[in-house]
Amino acid sequence: MPGELARYIAVKGSVCVDGVSLTVNAVDARGFAVGLIPHTLAVTTLNERKVGDAVNLEVDLMARYVARLLGAGDEPARAAAPPLTREALARAGYLDDAAAGYTDSGDRSDATCLEAPVSEDNQ
Ligand SMILES: Cc1nc2c(=O)[nH]c(=O)nc-2n(C[C@H](O)[C@H](O)[C@H](O)CO)c1C
After folding, report:
1. Predicted ipTM?
2. DSSP label of 44
3. Measuring from atom 21 of ligand 1, which residue has the nearest CA?
4. Domain 1-59 CATH class label
5. Does the chain have fewer CB atoms within 10 Å around its N or its C terminus?
6. Which residue is closest in CA terms to ligand 1's atom 7?
7. For the chain, what are the domain ranges?
8. What is the predicted pLDDT for the residue at 122?
9. Is 19 close to ligand 1, i.e. is its CB under 6 Å away?
10. Would the CB of 63 count as within 6 Å of ligand 1?
């Protein structure tokens, strides 16, 4: 796991692996652990992953907001989090779209996920 992502991953928090939302069960210095239920294995490509494969990781938006709020003066943390707006929260599923006055256009070009490739080299 790239070091810059480790700060955003916490037990019981969410992480996206190859686009699949998962719950973090454990974290240590080497990385994090998740459990995979049969449904997830059946309907995603995660059952094709082998030890050492590179995967796409996306960390939780709320974790990045917290890091941003706590990270005054920490430029990487501040840059990683988008501005905290009702629309951004609605896009991420934390607010009802209508209540936020936001209509989903389906356009994810301004998506707020922080992505990083993971390989054996940077674990
Ligand atoms: C939050 C979450 N956590 C897990 C998990 O820890 N393990 C797991 O196997 N599946 C989880 N899921 C469900 C998957 O995101 C879902 O099965 C896929 O996205 C396919 O719909 C979800 C939604």
Report:
1. 0.97
2. S
3. 40
4. mainly beta
5. C
6. 36
7. 1-59
8. 42
9. no
10. no
Per-residue pLDDT of the chain (123 residues; tens, 9 = 90+): 777 788 889 899 999 999 999 999 999 888 999 999 999 999 999 999 999 999 999 988 877 777 777 765 566 666 666 777 778 777 777 777 666 565 556 555 554 444 444 444 444
Two structure tokens written together for 59:
């960390």
Ligand 1 atom closest to the CA of 25, numbered from 1: 6
Q: Is the CB of 39 under 6 A from ligand 1?
A: yes
Residue 13 burial class via C-beta count within 10 angstroms: exposed 0-12, middle 13-18, buried 19 and up: middle
User: How many A from CA of 17 to the centre of ligand 1?
Assistant: 10
- Nearest to residue 116, comparing CAs of 87, 85, 68, 76? 76
Global confidence as pTM: 0.65
| DSSP secondary structure code for residue 81 in this structure | S
Sorted by sequence, the CB contacts under 8 Å of residue 84 that are 6+ apart come out as 65, 68
Name residue, tokens 């030890």.
51
Q: Does the CB atom of residue 43 touch ligand 1 within 6 A?
A: yes
